[in-house]
Amino acid sequence: MSPGDGQEEERLVATAADREDQAVEAALRPRDLGEFIGQSRVREQLDLVLRAARARGATADHVLLSGAPGLGKTTLSMIIAAEMGAPIRVTSGPAIQHAGDLAAILSSLGEGEVLFLDEIHRMSRPAEEMLYMAMEDFRVDVVVGKGPGATAIPLELPPFTLVGATTRAGLLPPPLRDRFGFTGHMEYYEPAELQRVVHRSAGLLGVEVTAEGAAEIAGRSRGTPRIANRLLRRVRDWAQVRGDGVVTHEAAVSALAVYEVDERGLDRLDRAVLGALLRLFGGGPVGVATLAVAVGEERETVEEVAEPFLVREGLLARTPRGRVATPAAWRHLGLTPPAQAPGAGQDGLFEG
C-alpha cells in the first residue's frame, strides 16, 4: 500500500463512514424532524415542504441535500420517508453507471416511494439525462434494440420523491439542480449542538457522560456529528478499560491523547502537514506536491483529506504561489514565527 492509500478510512477524524459507523448510525438515527439535532434552517424549511405535501395528499417535491460528509444527509432522507409514511429505496451515484441501471430502479418504485440517491454527482451522464424526464414528467424512455432498428418505448412511472445527496453541489449540471423543488445546504455543527448529539448518543448507547466530558468530545469533533459519535465510542472504550466507565473530561482528554486527536480536532496527519510547513519551509509558500513529499503522503491525501479542515480552521491558506501557514498555525503548534514569516495581512495570502 502506498502512502495515503486508505488513509481516509483509518483516521479517527475521517468523515467517511466505515462499517462500524454505519451500524451505530442506524441505531442512533433520529426517527423524525423533532428528534433531529442541528440544521435548524433546513429542518424548518423541510418541515414546511413535508407538511404541505401531506395536507394536499400529494407526493413531496424532490429534495437535494448538499454538504460535507457526516452531517446527516442520509438521516434526513430516512426522516423524509418516515414523515411521508412511505418506503425508501437507497442507492448511490457510483452504482448507476448505465441508463438501464436507473430504469430498472425507477420502474420498480411504488407510488409515493422515496428514492435516496447518495453521491448523485457521480452518476453517469446517460443515467443523468434519463433522470431529467423521470423527475419532471414521471416517465422514462426505454430503448430496445440497437442501431437503426432501436425503438424507444415510453414507460410511465408512479409519482415518487427523489432525495439526492451530494458533497459537491457544484458538479451537478444546472438542468438537474433546477428539477429539485427544495434544496437544503447542511452546515457544520456548533459545539453546543454537538454536545447535545453526544448526550443523546450516550443515552442510546448506555454510556454515562458528564457535561464536561461531552463538551471536550464536541470541541474535537470538527463540527461533524459522525466524528462526535466515533470519538464518544473511543472515549467510552478508554473509560471502561482504564477508568470507572464514566466519560468525564479527564477520560476524554486522556483517551483522545492516546488516539492523537488534539484539542482542536487535528490528528497526526494534520499536525504533520502543519509541522512540515512551519519547520521545514518557514511557513511557506510551498507547493502542495513538495509538502506531500515532506510528510510522506500522496499529494491527493494532503490536498483532499488534510487541507480542507486546516483551511476551514484558519491554520493554512492557499495562495497563487503555494500553501502558507497563518499566525494561528504557529500559535497552535507552540512555535515562534521567524521575522519574515507570512502573516494574515500579507498581500496575496488569500485567493479570490
UniProtKB/TrEMBL annotation:
Gene3D superfamilies registered for this protein in UniProt: 1.10.8.60, P-loop containing nucleotide triphosphate hydrolases, Winged helix-like DNA-binding domain superfamily/Winged helix DNA-binding domain
The keyword DNA repair is assigned to this record: yes
Keywords assigned by UniProt, alphabetized: ATP-binding, Cytoplasm, DNA damage, DNA recombination, DNA repair, DNA-binding, Helicase, Hydrolase, Nucleotide-binding
Subcellular location: Cytoplasm
Occurrences of domain AAA+ ATPase (ranges): 59-190
Renumbered residue ranges of the record's region Head domain (RuvB-H): 263-352
Keyword Hydrolase: yes
Residues at which Mg(2+) binds: 74
Stretches the record annotates as Large ATPase domain (RuvB-L): 9-189
Catalytic activity: ATP + H2O = ADP + phosphate + H(+)
Region (Small ATPAse domain (RuvB-S)): 190-260
Comment text on domains: Has 3 domains, the large (RuvB-L) and small ATPase (RuvB-S) domains and the C-terminal head (RuvB-H) domain. The head domain binds DNA, while the ATPase domains jointly bind ATP, ADP or are empty depending on the state of the subunit in the translocation cycle. During a single DNA translocation step the structure of each domain remains the same, but their relative positions change.
Family statement: Belongs to the RuvB family.
Oligomeric form and interacting partners: Homohexamer. Forms an RuvA(8)-RuvB(12)-Holliday junction (HJ) complex. HJ DNA is sandwiched between 2 RuvA tetramers; dsDNA enters through RuvA and exits via RuvB. An RuvB hexamer assembles on each DNA strand where it exits the tetramer. Each RuvB hexamer is contacted by two RuvA subunits (via domain III) on 2 adjacent RuvB subunits; this complex drives branch migration. In the full resolvosome a probable DNA-RuvA(4)-RuvB(12)-RuvC(2) complex forms which resolves the HJ.
Function field: The RuvA-RuvB-RuvC complex processes Holliday junction (HJ) DNA during genetic recombination and DNA repair, while the RuvA-RuvB complex plays an important role in the rescue of blocked DNA replication forks via replication fork reversal (RFR). RuvA specifically binds to HJ cruciform DNA, conferring on it an open structure. The RuvB hexamer acts as an ATP-dependent pump, pulling dsDNA into and through the RuvAB complex. RuvB forms 2 homohexamers on either side of HJ DNA bound by 1 or 2 RuvA tetramers; 4 subunits per hexamer contact DNA at a time.
PANTHER family, per database record: HOLLIDAY JUNCTION BRANCH MIGRATION COMPLEX SUBUNIT RUVB (PTHR42848:SF1), PTHR42848
Protein name: Holliday junction branch migration complex subunit RuvB
Organism annotation: Streptomyces boetiae
Lineage: Bacteria, Bacillati, Actinomycetota, Actinomycetes, Kitasatosporales
Gene (UniProt): ruvB
